[in-house]
Amino acid sequence: MSQLEKLTLSLVAKDRNSFIDGTQLHNDILYKMAHLHTFIFDITTRNVIFSQVILPFSDDVRRTFIERGYHTDCYIDYYSEGINLCHVYSLPFTMKRMYNVTNSFPGGLFMNVRKLSLSDLFIPFEHDFFVKISQAFPLVSQLALLNMWKQQKKLTDEQTCSIIEYSHLVQLSLISAHTDYVKQFLFNSKSHLPCLDTLDVKYQDLITVTDNFTTDAARDNCAKLKNIIFDATPFVYSENFYRYFPSL
């Protein structure tokens, strides 16, 4: 390992007493790699119980990498005591996957990412957040959501929002998401999914959003679906179901 020249590290750690930062990585691992010239990383630390009173900011974590010559970005979420998250990653980001993206994600451009997970256990994802995500990950083909919080910023009938384009999205998982996010992605007025092939969703949510497979609001984004994975398979599908998903 001391002869290693390139290291790619994707890591999720939890239940520690500090966030993983550049200082710890150097002292524990990197100093042993004298020939290392390329270090690509995506590191998430969650649920840290801190011993110190003053909690670190994202700039503090980022600085420990920059001081050692690594260009990084970082964000931190503090929800309550012992419930927190620090996500730090190298730039430019060359991995094809990124996980644990929360509302605090600062944005950027990640042309290599094809598989993405969005997760926030305490704050809902609003429409503006998805605008940022679509711009930051323009080539994402697999997307999964974990967020059971109802959206708070509701549009009135007189208000309109920008339609978000997910030009390359093929697989979408909403099985661990609130019903609002089924609307967010499937309603034609909110999102355009020209390549969507596979949907992972709760059956009851789909009934609710499509008004028992009769509303036109989601028809365009559902027309090309070839696979739908439900949390529980119904015994009988309605006649409207097959009309709504003609490509199944």
Quick summary:
The protein has 248 residues and is of the alpha/beta class. Helices cover 21% and strands 28% of the residues.
What is the multimeric organization of the chains shown? single chain
Roughly how much helix do the residues carry, as a percent range?
10-25%
Overall strand count: 12
Mean pLDDT: 93
CA radius of gyration is 21 Å
Number of helices: 7
Distance between the termini: 50 Å
Overall geometry comes to elongated
**Proportion of beta-strand residues:** 25-35%
Structural class: alpha/beta
Q: Main β-sheet, in a few words? A: 6 strands, parallel
How many distinct domains?
2
Describe the strand arrangement of the main beta sheet, using strand numbers.
5-6-7-9-11-12
The SSE order reads EHEHEEEEHEEEHEEHHEH
Which consecutive residue ranges, at least 5 long each, have pLDDT under 50? Answer: none
